[in-house]
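To close the section, here is one more complete example, presented without commentary so you can practise reading it yourself. The ligand is C2E.
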Amino acid sequence: MSHISPMQWDFALASQGLPSAQPPAQPPRLLLVDDEPRLLQSLCELLKNRGFILVTAQNGHEAITRLNSEPFDLVILDLRMPDISGQEVMDYMNVHKIDTNVIVTSGDSGIEAAISVLRRGAYDYLRKPYPREELLKAVQNALQQRRLAAENKQIAARLESSERIYRHLVDSSPDIIFTLDHRGMLTFVNHRVQPLLGFNAEDLIGQHYADLVHARDMERAQYVFSDGQQQQRWSRNIELRLKSRHLDDEGRVFSVELMSISFATQVKPADGEPQRPDRLGIYGVARDITDRKRADELIAYQAYYDVLTDLPNRVLFKDRLSLALLQAKRKKAGLAVMYVDLDRFKVINDSLGHHLGDELLQQVSVRLKGCLRHSDTLSRFGSDEFNVVLPELDTVQDPTRVAQAFLDALRVPFELGGQVIHITASIGVAVYPKDGESVDDLIRNADLAMHAKKSQGRNGYKFFELTMLNQSFEQISVESGLRLALSAGELEMYYQPQVDVKSGKIMGAEALMRWNHPQRGFLGAGAFLPFAEESGLIIAISDWMLEAVCRDLLAWNTLSDDRPYLSINLSPHYLDQGDFYDKLKATLERFQISPSQLEVEITENICIRNPQAAIDQLHMLCQLGVRVAIDDFGTGYSSLSYLHRFPIHVLKIDRSFVMTIEDDTQQFPVVLAIISIAKGLGLKLVAEGVETEVQKRYLEQAGCQTFQGYYYHRPMPQRALMGLLLSQSIH
Ligand code: C2E
Ligand code: CA
Ligand code: CA
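Output:
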């Protein structure tokens, strides 16, 4: 047996002009089979040192054993052997699919033997004795044939797998990939078309592209495609709506990239005929951009519309207003801008939850729209602010009519999540050209008029007046001034007595804040506390207030053994701060004031963000001995439902109800209802804002005990109250 190194074999192959396979091929393995030891020996001699691995077998059995145990590239097989013939060995190889080339050597001179082995698949047949060169040549040829066959197989396998890869790539592309022939017929389309458009790729082959294009885009498609069929090196990008078999789809939008390709014409021209030019076809990639398109549209929509109500937003409103202004100027006509703001919307929104709050805004927008003409523009600027342009005014009567229609439309209660909601609005109106000539001026002045309406009592409309401009400048200065007011000692607590109707005695007082403003003079709480709430300054102000009232209360106690109670108003933001209870307790302790002398007034706004935390703190207050009063009862939303949740001792009838009592021969059912609720729940009643004898009498007869209002006393400074208390203790 002989071995040569793989390197040498590689070189041998290369010298024969064969492509060398990589990695370097193993040296060929040869099995030499002959029963005659001498012949076998000379065969070995002949083949050794030629880069083969040689294995010998001295009979058929041994040959089969060898073939079973290791692979061979070539068998040189003697035909006549005593145990098993060469034919039988070959039969065995065929049955067991042993893939090896075979060269048969035989002393047999008859042609039958040769035929029988060639039929069995032998590569060559050599008659003994054969010339050495003949054998060497046969061996070389057999090995080369085998090598080529193996290489072919490999190439075929590689081609098949690369074809599979390309197919896979094409089919798993997110895009539809297709080719069209010169007539526009589909010659290829990948499987992506199935999920995207619902068509079977195979069914589409041979169909015209027009069958896939949406009718709306057909003209454009035809223009572009026919263009592409004329020119070489042509490419184009076009957006097309394609037909879809999916039921819910009325055409998806695709961005289609097209490129010309040339198909070589198959038919060879006859002699003398000119070669026909290659036919042009089109290669295309269609990308589904439906979702992006929709997103684009949505973004464009959102730039100009309010998504919640579908109304124009501020940008579009201003645009429409400026157009309307141009026209009004040209036609010398009037125009009105209205600013509509819902009253107490924040409270409703906070207590209903934002979802129902949104629904309320939608219902409001529908109602407002119903009051307008087609040419009017209603828009939403955000939160609960709606704006209107009324172009081409005839008379000032016009905005009045619309404003009244708005108020009437809102008067009908809203139904939301099974609850009945009442809402009102404050409306400001600015008229061109009287109140302004520019977009911004008109909007601002309508806004000012709306705010003026708010501060004068909501639920109504107001036209812009020049004085409002000055007031608005003052408001801005309030916010900045308020920061300084605390440190400058400009805040002061006033007290309004609460009087027992039978005895006429002052039982306690409500603390009300005042601001001695350096420029604007004396300001009531309503003129600045709302700003403090908005700016967050209310926390520091409330801290100061706690100290101030405790100090004052301590002074009251020095006057007599009477212990009048003191009632403070609690900002919801203050209660929302987690440390409110601790602060209050510490302050009472520091001043050594009995908690039973203190009352806190809360409104339903108290449970803005974290109702449970607020309720918990109130419960702790109660345990401490502080009483809780419900302020402004009946004016807000869900008055009854929260009575259960809070620990309450006192109910204050709001001034707005007391105000309605003008004549004590009449019945005032709301007032009576509130009084009976308080009685039913065992709460103490305080009537607030009592200004007249009539009101006092009616309320007293209805069962009210304690009164607070101008009829008895206005809010007064500490010193004035001290005087009152002192004189009361002497009498
Ligand atoms: P409120 O608690 O409902 O206070 C009653 C308001 O009605 C007070 O206005 C009071 O001056 C006024 N008033 C009392 N009797 C009569 C009357 O017979 N006729 C009329 N027309 N008005 C009467 P004020 O002081 O401007 O307070 C407004 C609101 O500001 C208060 O409403 C209260 O919610 C809040 N507030 C006042 N002081 C404080 C405070 O120290 N802290 C907090 N957080 N809020 C305060
Ligand atoms: Ca109050
Ligand atoms: Ca009140």
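Once you have examined the tokens, check your reading against these statements. DSSP finds 25 helices and 27 strands in the chain. The chain has a mean pLDDT of 87.
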